Amino acid sequence: MKSFVFCCLIASQFDSAISSGSDWDYHHMDHWVDSYPMCGSNDQSPIDIPTANAVNDDEICDKYFEWDLNYNHSTFLIMNNGHSVVLKAVEVSDGIYDEEVSEGIYDEEDNEYMTLGLNENTIATFPNYFLPMQFNDLGYPISTSEHDTFCLDSFHFHWGNDSHGSEHMVDHEQPPLEVHFVHYSCEHASLGTTLSGLGDEDAVETARANEEDVHQLAVVGIFFDVTNETNPAFETIFEDHLDNIQYPDKRGYSEIVHGLDLRELIPDYIESAGYYAYEGSLTTPPCTNIVRWHVMNARGYIGEDQVEQFRKLFADDFGSQISPNYREVQDNVHTVYACMEGESDPDVDTEETDTMFYVVSGYAVVVVMMQCTFGAICCWRQKRRDNRVRKPLVMAVNVVNTAGASTSTASELGHH
Fold first, then answer.
1. 296 near 219, Cβ under 8 Å?
2. Which is deepest, 131, 179, 348, 407, by most CB within 10 Å?
């Protein structure tokens, strides 16, 4: 019981650290790095996905995304944390808690709930479908990752004030809305315990130096297009709840959504439509670079009036809008993979392998040039030796020929 409570407390602490707080906002993204150094690394998220350059490699990622998600679960805690709208799966508590260990989730009728975000009770998991080859500092490949399954913690949204609102872009296109389903390695008890071992830049670099796979979070990103059709999922999310979550902590109780059908939120062909995958970071401070991103090809839909519901949410009780709450696209040195139907190119290696190839090629060019140079020098020396021998011989032959010609001429004159 104590370990369970400890995991819940850590998860709550780190949920707050990555998604709330007053020390950062989307209006001063350039200054995030001042307080959070990892926000300035070269493997940040989100990115603009270049589809023409994405690598299709069956050895790196599976094309079929089988998501073991309990679609029958329909009860969620909904929160406005000042930066986004976050939903977590919950269920009514079975009474095992007391005042010391309660998660503090009570609805308006004082019913107690518990979150379903631990690896033992999460409502969604999926295998590690995306596993680029890892290399150590010497360029040698590292064994496969021990983080072979990911567990769902929660999901949240990103939107804007106009037709642009997603964090990721595809070929410079920015859809109006994006949802992120945040997962952590099921080797850990929770999202909090995962992050506790990778809490800062030093911890991440130490783990990487020890040849550990540091990409222990996995986020599934889904775009939404605005249509004239109303999506029942968003109707359920906002119906009777919008006023209560207008700004953080507006009510003294927790807001619980009942009857949310995830089938209406998640496209039904998401498993077969493919996705783009790359290694990146959290898109909010502390920008920890430990995320395997899965940006899905299948898209959901949302009604125009429903997008306006998001834009009515405030970051505080002063009426400051949350939107736009998307980070600008970042530079990222990692390869983007197209995990979908298409011609696979298994010969394309990671950037480390490419670097080794160029180094070896450079050495080969130098060797060939040196061989050509030495060959030319040898030919020149041989030619000089030949000239030294040939010149006296030619002179001797000329003397003999001259002498013979003189004798022959004298003989002919004698006959005459």
1. no
2. 179
- Alpha carbons 340 and 349: distance in angstroms, whole number: 18
Contact predicate 217/291, CB 8 Å: yes
Side chain identity at residue 195, one-letter code: L
Give CA angle at 184 (222, 171), nearest 5°: 30
pLDDT at 363: 42
Q: Are 74 and 258 in contact (CB under 8 A)?
A: yes
Six-digit token pair at 98? 């007391």
Give whole-number Cα distances, 145 to 58, 187, 206, 289, in Å: 17, 11, 16, 16
Beta carbons of 71 and 267 less than 8 angstroms apart: no
Element of type H or E holding 87: strand 85-92
Alpha-carbon distance of 233 to 76, in angstroms, equals 12
Q: Please, are residues 292 and 282 in contact by the beta-carbon 8 Å criterion?
A: no
Name the amino acid, one letter, at 164.
Answer: H
H or E stretch covering 245: none
Of the pLDDT bands very low, low, confident and very high (cuts 50, 70, 90), residue 145 is confident
User: Can you give the length of the chain in residues?
Assistant: 416
Contact 292, 130 (CB under 8 A): yes
Residue 196 CA from chain centroid, whole number: 20
Between CA 7 and CA 378 the distance in angstroms is 75
Q: How many CB atoms lie within 10 A of CB 136?
A: 13
Cα separation, 99 vs 357, whole angstroms: 62
Task: Give residue-wise pLDDT tens across range 239-268.
Answer: 999 999 999 999 999 999 999 999 999 999
> Which sign does the torsion angle of CA 115, 117, 119, 122 carry?
positive
